[in-house]
């Protein structure tokens, strides 16, 4: 009777397949790279084990299994309000976002996991951590360096403003944070920074400039301009998207009051009806929609003058021209499915002998 | 009651909402796998069954409804069965129930009689307290068995409206103008028809494709026509705070703006997936019958209204 190691006699290692072992190691490595608390690692590993046992994941490709580990880490982070974005995980795993997305959605569904929404506030703090403008460096002009606390606080306020004015719902969060960070940075020292573009700012800060950020910036400025039009002492100035930046501090301070006055916050349905109204007679008057009295708030163009515009998501303010699928016509609805099918109708879909000959010659079937 | 009933197992036909047009090859086998286990037992005791889904019975249509009841019942029970977590139970029972099949269903029969409508053809008139909005059907996916082996290369050569790239996809892609649809025709003789705006149009289109195949010289039949998925859409006409909805309906909702701008709502009864967007537009999918789409929308409308004035 020789000595047997505990792990050998209990078959601990044998119980776990090599695939599972490798997967668990990967999850643990990921947690270490992200410097997550130990409890996260345990949770992620347990999700991973549960998932792999589930019939939907048991037989998926190795590629998907690798992503599965990342998904488990991602879910764990979200459940602990640790602001990890999918973009980050995907880049760590060198994964295609579409594939990650499908694995993530399956995981959420099959394991019945409840994943809390990404906290924007936390995201702001984490994302700003990677900006390089908080410390003096050789390539950063002195007036561009900013105090981190101030910038985080102001960025949060701008992101909240964006959220209240429908700029956040349905949109990717990072570009909004980037645009908000840029505006907050500019507004803290406008004199020196107004000439700096978003692109240059991102380059200096050492962060990526996501393509939607330009559009988010534009939308934010439009909101701020509308709010500025309600501040009596600012009405004297001819505000544009450059000059309004100087007053962001004030605008944020009084934002509740300004939002109420700059936009009609009442019945969403009426607002939409008016916004999309093409001036047909008998349209319902919107509450406080003085600017809409012309009847046609020209799609795509902003109403600079006049009263408040409805507070709506941009996709409703500027509806893109879309093919209107015609409502089923009377003849369509009358179809029973049993109609006779004429020979001629079918024959139009068949090639003539000459065609076949020509096709054969061309394709050498 | 429902536990006693030994019905056929429903192989979980997972049609994700985004796959409505081009299912991958393996889907075909899953779809037709479930067709083989059609025989159902009709329960004789209705006392504990929820009949609220049935249309109102008047003197005139009473007789008609009695025959439709059975089919509706089977569908309702099948739905609830497939929703059960432990599908393995049904795998075992299938061996027992198979031999007991007494209720012939139109789908199992070899002939193809004119399809008895399972639901009323006209949309259910909304009750006075309902939304007053009727979702519009946008896409119907159906399948049919032509019941003969097909030479796809031959079809692609002789048909004008056919596309065939065997390296890319193992089926002929055929299109007709009226009803404007697309068909995937497999060498096994199975066919998928997509793009129609109503069940009847889907059936008419499928019949036309079958006729094309017949004219090309194949002994095509028209067996087991079945609507597999229906997609509808509508507009509630007010913006929706998706962040709020995902908080209050966490167990049904998935809202990941990093992935997709809409909120994915998986309704349990009826088993429909809804895509809800900030603009107030709603897409409903996963239905086998149009009543499920209407019912799902009527269920979601009051919930969405709750998020209307959240600014």
Automatic annotation (TrEMBL), chain A:
Domain BRF2-like C-terminal positions: 119-256
UniProt biased composition (Low complexity): 279-297
Gene3D superfamilies on file: Cyclin-like (1.10.472.10)
Keywords assigned: Metal-binding, Repeat, Transcription, Transcription regulation, Zinc, Zinc-finger
Highest taxon listed in the record's lineage: Eukaryota
Disordered: annotated segments: 277-316
Molecular-function GO terms, alphabetical: TBP-class protein binding; zinc ion binding
Segments forming a coiled coil: none
Keyword Transcription included in the entry's annotation: yes
Protein's UniProt name: BRF2 factor
Source species of the chain: Ciconia maguari
UniProtKB/TrEMBL annotation, chain B:
Gene Ontology cellular component terms for the protein in this record: nucleus
Leader sequence residues: none
GO biological process, alphabetically ordered: DNA-templated transcription initiation
Cell compartment(s), UniProt: Nucleus
Biased composition range(s): Basic and acidic residues: 72-85
UniProt-annotated stretches for the region Disordered: 58-85
One Gene Ontology term of the molecular function aspect: DNA binding
Keyword annotations: DNA-binding, Nucleus, Transcription
InterPro entries assigned: TBP, TBP_CS, TBP_dom_sf, TBP_eukaryotic
PROSITE patterns found in the cross-reference section: TFIID (PS00351)
Pfam family, one: TBP
Family annotation (HAMAP family): TATA_bind_prot_arch
Family named by the database record: Belongs to the TBP family.
Protein name per UniProt: TBPL2 protein
Organism: Ciconia maguari
